[in-house]
Amino acid sequence: MNLSTGATTRSETTSAAASRVSIIVTAICWGMVVLEGYDLISFGSVLPVLINTPDSGYNPANAGIVASMAFVGATIGALSSGWLSDRYGRRAVAIGCLGWFSVFTMMCGFADGPFWLGLLRLLAGIGIGGIVPATSALTLEYASKKHRTLAYTLMLSGVPIGGVLAAISGLTVIPTLGWRWVFFIAIVPALIVLPFILSKLPESLTFLEHTGQFARAEALRAKLGLEPAAAAPADAHKAHDTVPATARSGGIFSRGYLAASLMFAAATFFGLLTWFGLGTWLPGIMRATGYDLGNSLVFLLVLNIGAIIGSIFIAVATDRFGNKKILVPTYMVMAIALVILTIKMPQPPLLLAMAIAGVGGHGGQILINRFVSRSYGARHRASALGWSLGAGRLGTIVGPIVIGYIVAGGKAGLGFAFFAACAVAAALLLWFTPATPAFKAEEE
Fold this sequence. Notes:
81% of the residues lie in helices and 0% in strands. By secondary structure, the chain is an all-alpha fold. The chain has helices at residues 2-51, 60-88, 90-107, 114-142, 148-156, 158-177, 180-184, 187-200, 205-210, 214-224, 236-241, 258-288, 293-321, 323-340, 347-374, 378-392, 394-408, 414-431, 437-443. Pfam families: MFS_1.
């Protein structure tokens, strides 16, 4: 009786420790993604000022190219993140990316002209693109199976929250201090939270075990109060050393996974094009259609608020009904909302349509990422997310350039129709994506 009671107590203690660690990891990763969201969307806040200031050197066409430079860098960062995470660890990559993009975003405030701003946005983008795969892998690993979708959704809600802060920054900072200060202040929160992150964010246990660092993994488990892992084979170190680093990410293109990997990348292409295209160009489009700077930034604010609120409800619905049953309608409803935005009408229904577009843009991408994570084993999860987000970010490069030329041609409203078509394309690709062996195993 006493033995049973002791075992139950240990189990409850371990469960409580696991829950505590999950909350800490999710909260830290959320904070890092908030800063990433601010740095990424901050250019959208200053864009209307740049293209409407005489003799600034900016126009809709070259501003679109400057906007795309952050996404060029993000593509490099996302494609590199999986390999770097497998080699150096998720924690190291996440912290390194945070410091990297915070410094280069701050330096954007010193940029003189489109060339230098574009170059600095490209450099900042490398860190911006690399942090999400690393924080996603950490959050999903430490979250319980029951609450993974919710934890992941909460973590990625940091992106639109960062967008809200960027819009508020534009509304308050630009009229008083000028657009450069939107970038200058980006370094402040990073400096404040970095010491806490360094002391509290744990490394991935999966990474430690798959790189043969079993003693370090067990020490970390003990420190966190988690259950010890099963004993590793005596020759595990040798077996690991014989596997080349490049082979560890090859599973995402193996038999049973290739088609899904390609379709995930294509769906992410259209999903990210739509979401970040809106985040970048929405104030510029609204300004070009006759709204003043304040109202244009209000639309950006509503877009991100809709993304925050809606993504939580989408995550709960997905846990109940499954990925495809929610993902496909999410993008189709978003497409309808974007078509509505092409019609001239009073501001309240436009704001409602904007909020719905935010729900679909951010919520849909969260669900794609969750779909990807469920479709691969823990060993290849970071590489799979890095691949889909990296390849998909090519859409974020194309989007700002295309919309820039649409606005330059005097047809700003057509930008919403373009985004609607991309949302429909994402929905169709996701509908036809096949289930992988790992996904089928988890469903069973």
